[in-house]
UniProtKB/TrEMBL annotation:
A Pfam family it matches: SIMPL
GO BP terms, alphabetized: DNA damage response
Organism in which the protein naturally occurs: Gloeomargarita lithophora Alchichica-D10
Protein name: DUF541 domain-containing protein
Entry-linked InterPro entries: 26kDa_periplasmic_antigen (IPR052022), SIMPL/DUF541 (IPR007497)
Length: 237
């Protein structure tokens, strides 16, 4: 009797185990086609570039006054007097973003390291319309400017903002053209864009140049400023 009872228990446990395994297989199967479908999804990643050229409208200028003398106080006083006239003149002109960029005073020595005097140099930076830059520079030179350390040409803020939008559009179009070229060769069909990432939008620092010595009758001709954008596009095919 005891052996028969144990045999019946064993058969019951075996049937229960088989039934549980069958339930496990059935419960897992509905999710498997979805996983397989995800594994079959194909996505092409393409990086597009866009560049827009904008006409420059302003000149960014950095200039200053440099004086040598025997006495530090005398040098600094003379620089301050000249620079005060220059700043007053700029405030009467359509100058924007007027900023002091440097104040320097240091000694200079002879061959035997004897003190010969002092050098003072103060510089300012500002922005002017290109059409008025030459005349303003000539006037400032007459008032004592003897250092023009940098000239660069930039577009207006509004033009730069529009340029960034156009550069992004050009970058997306470039990415789409690249994707179409690749998929067409492979005889594949693009279906939809599943992702897009803006990698960069920038207006590189404008080209600048320096004039070793300030001179009168200075002709100024503006150039162009570039705006660049880069995007990554993910296309399902």
């Amino acid at each position: 009797m005891e052996l028969r009872h144990n045999a019946q228990n064993y058969r019951g446990q075996r049937h229960q185990t088989i039934w549980c395994l069958g339930l496990l297989v059935v419960s897992l199967w509905p999710g498997m086609p979805s996983a397989l479908a995800q594994g079959r999804e194909r996505v092409l990643e393409v990086t597009g570039q866009g560049t827009i050229s904008l006409p420059a409208q302003f000149t960014e200028v950095e200039l200053g006054v440099e004086i040598r003398g025997n006495n530090a106080n005398q040098v600094q006083t003379e620089i301050a007097q000249r620079l005060d006239k220059i700043i007053q003149t700029l405030r009467q002109k359509p100058a924007e973003k007027l900023t002091t960029t440097g104040v320097q005073l240091f000694p200079f020595y002879g061959e035997r390291q004897q003190l010969l005097g002092f050098v003072g140099r103060n510089t300012v930076r500002f922005r002017l319309p290109i059409t008025q830059t030459g005349a303003v520079l000539d006037e400032l030179v007459r008032q004592g400017v003897n250092q023009i350390t940098r000239l660069s040409f930039v577009a207006s803020e509004q033009a730069l903002e529009q340029g960034r939008t156009q550069a992004l559009q050009a970058a997306v179009q470039d990415a789409q053209k690249q994707a179409q070229a690749v998929l067409q060769v492979l005889q594949l069909t693009p279906k939809e864009v599943v992702g897009i990432t803006i990698l960069d939008t920038s207006a590189p620092a404008p080209r600048g140049f320096a004039l070793a010595e300030a001179r009168v009758n200075t002709p100024i001709v503006g150039g162009e400023q570039l705006v660049q954008a880069q995007v990554k596009v993910e296309i399902r095919y």
